[in-house]
Design goal:
The chain has helices at about 1-50, 60-65, and strands spanning about 55, 65-75, 80-90, 95-105, 110-120, 125-130, 145. Helix content is about 35%, strand content about 35%. It has two helices and seven strands; from the N terminus they run H-E-H-E-E-E-E-E-E. The strands form two sheets. It has a four-stranded antiparallel sheet with strand order 1-2-3-6. By secondary structure, it is an alpha+beta fold. The termini are far apart.
């Protein structure tokens, strides 16, 4: 009987060790998968951000009036459509006037326009938001002009 109990104890002890090893391997695999998933999501987010960073050329007439454009991005407004253009504007001279942003498709057809009245003193800077119609879905293929 003692031999039977000792044998069962050895089997149970071995099973317990094996289970921990299996659990450890599962935990290690889960950790690795989580890291890969995290890296993928971070990369995808950066890719989306890069796709919606916008490069705007500054028209000569606005440069002469003392304006300079910094970073510009496109994002969604409350409608969930990518129809919000945000431009960081630097004032190198006092300025009061209207800016118009226009969106063009890949065939140079205009399909969105938004106007903003802005005022700034020399040395100031501010973010200017152009809200387009909810049907104006701006994507990376579109050209945007602010004049």
């Amino acid at each position: 009987m003692r031999k039977l109990i000792a044998g069962i104890s050895i089997i149970l002890l071995h099973s317990a060790c094996s289970t921990n090893t299996v659990k450890d391997k599962i935990n290690q695999a889960g950790d690795a998968a989580g890291q890969v998933t995290g890296e993928f999501i971070e990369g995808a987010v950066k890719g989306v951000q890069k796709a919606f960073d916008v490069k705007l050329d500054l028209p000569a007439n606005l440069k002469e009036k003392g304006l300079e454009f910094g970073k510009a991005t496109v994002s969604s407004d409350s409608s969930g459509t990518d129809n919000l253009l945000v431009v960081y504007v630097v004032f190198n001279k006092d300025f009061k006037g209207e800016l118009t942003a226009k969106v063009f498709d890949d065939q140079d057809l205009e399909f969105g326009r938004s106007r903003m009245e802005i005022t700034g003193k020399k040395g100031d800077a501010q973010f200017v938001e152009f809200h387009f119609d909810k049907r104006t879905n701006i994507d990376s293929k579109n050209k945007i002009i602010v004049e």
